[in-house]
Amino acid sequence: MIKELRHDPLHMKKFDTIWSQFPVKNQVAYLVAYSSVFNDVITVDELSRRLSFNSENAVNDAIEELRKSGHVVVRKGFVALPYLDHKIDQKKRDQEITTLTVQKARRYLKWMGKLPFVKFIGISGSVAAGNPVQTKDKPLDIDVFVITSDSFTWLFGIVMATYRAIATKFKSSVFCFNHIWSETDLLVHNQNLFSAVEVLNLMPIAGERSYHLFLHTNRWIESYFPSLFKFNANQFENDKPIRVSTINKWFYLVFVLFRCLKNFNMSALRDFSYEFDLKNQFNLSRRGMQNGGYQLMVQQRFEKNMKEYLVELYNPSLLRIFFSDTLSESIRNGNYDFEVLAEGKVQLTDWALNYAKYQD
Questions:
Q1: Which of 62, 210, 297, 323 might form a disulfide with 355, Cβ 3.0–4.6 angstroms?
Q2: Is the pLDDT of residue 9 over 70?
Q3: pLDDT at position 336
Q4: What would the 3-class secondary structure string for the chain be?
């Protein structure tokens, strides 16, 4: 029986991980189940890498035990839940699409990375995970994560709007800038398995130092995946706190005013604040859906697949262990109304339809 606990990544000792309380077989099963949340499979090598605090033999023995019991399928170096056996045959094509997509995108993203106010740019989402998904109604796009200097998120927003206008005109939209963050605030607030895997999959294109600073700021990820990020943390010892300049605050206010005029809607001005608000898509230091969206669907699908395919290894405590952050807890307790939250911004149905691409 899995003991009841509340995972607190910020206060865990360096050598502790969330996996410490589970047998190796369970650790492997949970990662395979998490991959299935996105209709995906995982390689034996990736399982060994993510669980590198175990010996390779221990991980391989756990995979074999799960295979013999019929809980997973193992073929061609991949491990999958039985209903995703067909996905293994698609992975070679997925990997080819990912390689080609990244090669094409790298040139343009490197150019964006040379803008003086851009500190980092990288590929995230399904392409970074090696799980490119496109449907008849939704062609493949590339999720992009950007870090700007000071609080120039508003300025990159102009670059993004310009790109969208050009791309729409030529019907060649490729990039989705779903996260634009300022170097003044790099802490991930939704500290859970979903966020940890997203950071793990992130593919840096430009801005190595800022990428390392981002990882250094989010050392909580080590409680999920210890020893996977190699960089010299001493390089940040003499860094002074980066404060938002007054001029950027003024430009951000102007940016908000223009948004109100453009949309004929004053709600952005009514909710205006320089303080970070997790429930707001637009902030001085960040632009993007900080409140989750996928967080709801991910928890539901993870629990569903565990109960259906790995019921012997399931325990209600799992969600509280892997998703222990305030947002996830609010979702489980029914205290987070996505419909109200998304009003005037993005509807819950849009999140659901976007996530549905992983369920085909």
A1: 297
A2: no
A3: 61
A4: CCCCCCCCHHHCCCCCCHHHHCCHHHHHHHHHHHHHHCCCCEEHHHHHHHCCCCCHHHHHHHHHHHHHCCCCEEECCEEECHHHHHHHHHHHHHHHHHHHHHHHHHHHHHHHHCCCCEEEEEEEHHHHCCCCCCCCCCCCCEEEEEEECCCCHHHHHHHHHHHHHHHHHCCCCCEEEEEEEECCCCCCCCCCHHHHHHHHHCEEEECHHHHHHHHHHCHHHHHCCCCCCCCCHHHHCCCCCCCCCHHHHHHHHHHHHHHHHHHCCCHHHHCCCCCCCCCCCECCCEECCCCCCHHHHHHHHHHHHHHHHCHHHCCCHHHHHHCCCHHHHHHHCCCCCHHHHCCCCCCHHHHHHHHHHHHC
pLDDT tens digits for 261-287? 888 888 778 778 888 877 677 788 888
Q: Which residue has the higher pLDDT, 268 or 335?
A: 268
